[in-house]
Amino acid sequence: MEAAEYKNLLVTIEDRVAVVQINRPQALNALDARTLDELETAFRVLREDQAVGVLIVTGTGEKAFVAGADIRELTKLDGVSGRAYSLRGLEVFDLIHSSPKPVIAAINGYCLGGGCELALACHIRIASENARFGQPEVKLGLIPGYGGTQRLPRLVGTGRAIEMLLTGDVIEAREAERIGVVNRVVPGAELLAYCRDLAKRIMANAPLATTLALNAVNAGSDLPLDRALAVEAALFGLACGTEDMKEGTKAFIDKRKPSFKGR
Ligand code: DAK
After folding, report:
1. The domain over range 207-254 is classified in CATH as 3.40.50.300
2. In this structure, which CATH number among 3.30.930.10, 1.20.58.220, 3.90.226.10, 3.60.150.10 belongs to the domain 3-203?
């Protein structure tokens, strides 16, 4: 799928930051099958694009990031197709979560159900003051199917996650920040600028090192501590083998700014 063929996404690249905007405002940016397909294509393309260092995912408009999986599509699912639908979503969200380039969710409004799970699959979450979070699937006779029952407890702890998953309550941005669903809340008008600045601060660092740090966190998060630390040691060794490590340490000694090459 070429970029020009996206129907439900707007993709722009500026200053090495790709902004992937989910663009179905008539359905509050709900994720239907086509949008999932387009997200997969966009992430496959952008992760290989040398002109891109960081990705930002957001929604069109001020009202919604993503208001969930598309409920109209959900009504058609049965046991077999429901499992396939869930596995398809997991595949796409895993692609995002395992991206070697950092992915920031810029959460600009309702972030519900599958939308909250999309944000959870990203590496960093920044929310506007009007953002609202929830996993309301139980209100529809469902449970989260895109990783919410697994990623939310890992992020905020089991007790808080279970409260959100079982009540389906919607929480405000400040509460989401307090319990650790999001890293930071900023005024809506500043959301994208804040995320771009965050991307810039990340991209000022050695790109292979930021990828290795991401890999270490992702690979280690489900392992016992001793094995996770062994993963860190191996990736630390890889970092030591890069030209950028030689440059970064030498620049420190020389009292100058490093010039990283991504090698
Ligand atoms: N899907 C489809 N359309 C949606 C939608 C959604 N999730 N959310 C909103 N819309 C549509 C509305 O139907 C409405 O369309 P029209 O009636 O204008 O045609 C339009 O967007 C504007 O919405 P409202 O008129 O409702 O706007 P309000 O300001 O009054 O309310 C709201 C905003 C966000 C509170 C409300 O729209 C709402 O409650 N939306 C549903 C939120 C929700 O329950 N989200 C969770 C969806 S469940 C699984 C895989 C994934 C999942 C589960 C299982 N497997 C494969 C097993 C994930 C499930 C979910 O995400």
Report:
1. no
2. 3.90.226.10
Residues with beta carbon inside 6 Å of ligand 1? 27-28, 30, 67-72, 82, 85-86, 89, 110, 112-114, 136-137, 140, 142, 144-146
pLDDT in tens, 160-189: 999 999 999 999 999 999 999 999 999 999
Which residues have a Cβ under 8 Å from the Cβ of 9 and sit 6 or more positions away? 20, 21, 22, 23, 35, 38, 39, 42
pLDDT digits (tens, 9 = 90+) for 203-236: 999 999 999 999 999 999 989 999 999 999 999 9
Domain coordinates in residue numbering, the chain: 3-203, 207-254
**Bridge-based pairing state of the strands 54-59 and 64-66:** unpaired
2 is catalytic: no
The reply to whether the predicted model has a pTM over 0.70 is yes
